């Protein structure tokens, strides 16, 4: 029996992904993926479980390759899935019987596939795949707009093995497809495979499967996903999730439009405007109104769209974090990935207005361990705004045993949140620090999700300002309550949380140690080199080409305050990060060297924005805890 929380215990396990309920509501298929990638090639398997929990989950594929994204045939008797078993890194479409046996490969093209959707007649699959390479004009020059292959919508005939391209979409890159009960397809596309920050070019189309005819429904809001059909009063609509305009600050919303019989589409109407919760997922229910997941403070709620008012109505709440909502054809059963305060992410299922029960059990070994007590926090910001967050006490200790060294962990995004879920992970992990004797503060400052559009949009052009004082207010509360030792404070985070850690040490000397994981040090440089380009100016406030300055982004960049930093900083970054390029870390490292600040600079080869290789994940866990141990040790202890 495991009796100690080690890095290996955290990393060596599997996590469920991509749950999908069978049309008849009897089964759930899902992916079980290894957490720490032992080799460069990731692996995962397809599992199936009964929705009523009457039998143990059954493993359908061996998991020696990357088998993922299961989708049911309409008769609920077989599953389609993507796998790179034929060639690592190239995904092909496969099909397997619910009874198991050998999977049948349905595609073999050199380019593989990027998305697919089995259609209702079980004879055709909508497949998104790039054109096959011709070998002509081969070169390794990287031409913008030509680097990534275009995903073309193709209709694969399962009887003949022949597929045809939907020509009416022209040179559009297809990103998502959903079928209407009447047979038509809703298709989301954008102008190029590369994200173009200058020109949000997402569009919505309707495709007739038999003829291939395309009806264009106009430009979507940014980062559109999850197209969902519904039919109030005999008129078809399409809903989708997208970032609220003008973007990217303000979070997600549900947009809806009527699909006209002919001609141009009307307004893309925001159905979640004014709500104090934030949509995070949509599920189609035959031709009825869609279901949706909403981030609701520290919890998650299931809502249904009211066809009369065109507003979402609450059905039930799920403690903690729920995601990846899926529903059977009738909508009587739903499933989602759920994590509660002391249970890791698992597949849960049940009626949308009732209680969801756990179906999978991917990490039973974790129940043998002792974890820190997790508390919900509610407090006010300095300007009176109501905030929430979490506190994890050291394992085996209570508030009366304080004060404790406090590590404040800041979430990424900033459009993200700490829900009341099990805080154990491969990076800056709350329970990992709590088992080492630290109290851990997990704040939800403004800019995150779960409290509506205005709360999320409050950081537009103002990162590091009010959201920073929101965090300070929580720390001060914990000091006043006798939980936190004011002389042993640490702070850390990944991505936007890494930015906040770097920002914090330039604003105050209160912290004795900081960890900057994949963080932003200069917003102007991020506009120039990051994936989102000029959209980052929505957070940083300006672009470098807007005259000679002074620029708002310089005022909001941690590197501008390097001369004031005295706190030791651990800098961690993936070498191949394209979201926040490693130059951000290098710049901050050079600034700290210039001013003689104690720090370590660690770069992980082959890693992107998230650390995935097992030995790197183990290093992050060990290194971050050792960093805080070094600088937050009790001065009265023998080893101080």
From TrEMBL:
Pfam families (UniProt xref): PD40, Peptidase_S9
InterPro entries for the chain: 6-blade_b-propeller_TolB-like, AB_hydrolase_fold, Peptidase_S9_cat, WD40
TM segment ranges: none
Top-level lineage group: Bacteria
Record keywords, A-Z: Hydrolase, Protease, Serine protease
Protein's UniProt keywords contain Hydrolase: yes
Protein name, entry field: S9 family peptidase
Organism: Nonomuraea mangrovi
